[in-house]
């Protein structure tokens, strides 16, 4: 039987409980999940790719029992090329709200035109995490708010330190 491989791309700047929920659920659907940590020049990331990869690797260790999970940089290549390079049959994308759907749908159609053998599977964010975004988490942290319900303690500590926020 062919190994089922999936790719879950994102900037993960920083990784949130919402991301972790989707990773846990996607990992149950495949034998191997490759998390692609993307460099997106338009997003002006707080952490560099290597820092984000290290954060993601630490936070997904607990899911290794469910599926083999690898974390790799997704830089200077199309998502479908990254998926193909990793022998993936599926790309997982998370949806939080209707506003996400329009963008994700367009990307799905383009990816399908570029590589028809790779399916895109949309996973709805759990109701607990539907509103969580890395952008909001950084802003809440920057302004001294409590981010403990959005990110793990290790990620919160790194965010606070990087932003120079006093506790």
| CATH topology category name | Rossmann fold
**Helical element count?**
6
Q: How does the major sheet shape up?
A: 5 strands, parallel
How many individual domains?
Answer: 1
User: How far is it from the N-terminal to the C-terminal residue, by CA?
Assistant: 52 Å
Written account of the structure:
- The protein is an alpha/beta fold and 167 residues long.
- The protein has one domain (5-128): Rossmann fold (3-Layer(aba) Sandwich).
- The chain has six helices and five strands.
- It has helices spanning 17-27, 49-60, 79-85, 98-114, 134-142, 153-163, and strands at 5-10, 32-38, 68-74, 90-95, 119-124.
- A five-stranded parallel beta sheet has the order 3-2-1-4-5, with helices on both faces.
- Helix 2 links the parallel strand 2 (32-38) and strand 3 (68-74).
- The longest helix is centred in the middle third of the chain and has 17 residues, at 98-114.
- The radius of gyration is 16 Å and the shape is globular.
For the structure shown, list the relevant keywords:
167 residues, Rossmann fold, single chain, alpha/beta, globular
Task: Give me a quick take on this structure.
The protein is α/β, with parallel strands linked by helices and 167 residues long. It has helices at 17-27, 49-60, 79-85, 98-114, 134-142, 153-163; strands at residues 5-10, 32-38, 68-74, 90-95, 119-124.
What's the layout of helices and strands?
Blueprint: E1 5-10, H1 17-27, E2 32-38, H2 49-60, E3 68-74, H3 79-85, E4 90-95, H4 98-114, E5 119-124, H5 134-142, H6 153-163
Parallel strand pairs: 1-2, 1-4, 2-3, 4-5
């Amino acid at each position: 039987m062919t190994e089922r491989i999936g790719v879950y791309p994102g900037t993960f700047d920083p990784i949130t409980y919402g991301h972790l929920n989707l990773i846990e659920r996607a990992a149950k659907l495949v034998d191997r999940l490759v998390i692609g940590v993307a460099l997106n020049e338009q997003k002006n990331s707080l952490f560099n790719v290597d820092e984000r990869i290290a954060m993601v690797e630490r936070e997904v260790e607990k899911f290794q029992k469910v599926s083999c999970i690898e974390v790799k940089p997704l830089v200077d290549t199309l998502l479908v090329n990254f998926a193909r390079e990793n022998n993936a049959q599926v790309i997982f994308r998370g949806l939080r709200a209707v506003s996400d759907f329009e963008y994700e749908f367009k990307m799905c159609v383009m990816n399908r035109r570029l590589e028809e053998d790779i399916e895109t599977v949309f996973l709805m964010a759990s109701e607990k995490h539907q509103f969580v975004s890395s952008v909001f988490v950084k802003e809440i942290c920057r302004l001294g708010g409590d981010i403990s319900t959005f990110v793990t303690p290790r990620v919160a500590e790194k965010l606070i330190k990087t932003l120079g926020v006093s506790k």
